[in-house]
# Entry
Amino acid sequence: MEKERVVLAYSGGLDTSVCLKWLMVEKNLDVIAITGNVGQDEKDLAEIKQKALDLGCIAADAVDMRDEYAADFLTYAIKANGLYENQYPLLSALSRPLLSKYMVEIAHQYGAKYIAHGCTGKGNDQVRFETSIRALDPSITILAPVREWDLHSRDDEMEWARANGVPVPTTNKKPYSIDDNLWGRAIECGVLENPWNEPPDDIWTMTAEVNDAPDEPESVEIAFEAGVPVALDGQEIGLVDLIIKLNQIAGKHGFGRLDMIENRLVGVKSRECYETPAASTIIKAHKALETICLDRETMHFKHVVEQQWATCVYYGQWYSQLKNSLDAFCQETQKFVTGTVRLRFHKGNCTVTGLKSDYSLYDYGLASYSADDTFDHAAAKGFIDLSSLPFVVWSGKQGPASC
# Structure
């Protein structure tokens, strides 16, 4: 009798390799493995695909998703200035809905009843994967082997792997858990679990130590069209390549390190370190451009929307009515966010040093205190009288405000 099929999100590491075999041995399923390239530091995805086939998958695929990730996910994050808790650029949260979409499509292609992931029961990613998959196709059954199997330690997992023909690393596992893609690197676990410990030097790979960064500052210009970066230093460039170049430039100067205590969706606080040189640079530049292209009330309200957008995405609600509605608002605000931002990198810092836009709402005549001043000072008294009128009435009727 033909076995039922499961699509597995496969990274090629020990955990997902054990998941792959476990689904075959314990669940008696045929496994289709899918590996997505969203810009992570993988030298050869074909090797990961072959490893999955060697372990007994009936099919495996390694898909280059970088262009789609940039165009359909990162552009939305840029327009929304997506920063969870005003810091984290959502690099992991942004890639999960894209990977989920591909898994659902592969499940349909192969007639698979199940989709599986290798997330633990403690992290955010299990929620992101499962919420996305259910939103895209509620009929698919989701399996989470790590939440189910009776393997209580890393040693138990390695012993099970050896017994079932899964290659086990000959060297000790790195002490950190790493997730990386175009938008940056996330580092956790090991000595980082104690918030009193200073992050060791060896966790950083994208950003230079400040003392090792160049002594001379470096300036770049990022051009935006309707809220999306389209050129670097006057040269038009695709978003993927622009992000890669900015990761190199900003990282060389030590900009883009984050060390934060993060409120996870599952209710625990977690110490997380991130390297996001390009993401932090682009969002900083985009925010600056908005200050001259958006009117006051729109910009103030957009700050509220941005926080809700980031929380929504962090919680795994990419495919939701609320997130779609927030996207629509952000998209409307970007119609005239077109212009160029100049930034200077130096010793771990990134400073905005210039802004220009054909749609700028900054009026020199109104802002200037020079002889070119065009502001009607005589209008100020009437404006103040009307603005303060409610407070005058309140104070007169209910008593003066206390000092």
Summary: The radius of gyration is 25 Å. The first strand starts at residue 5 and ends at 9. Residues 302 and 330 are 7 Å apart (CA to CA). The chain has a mean pLDDT of 93.
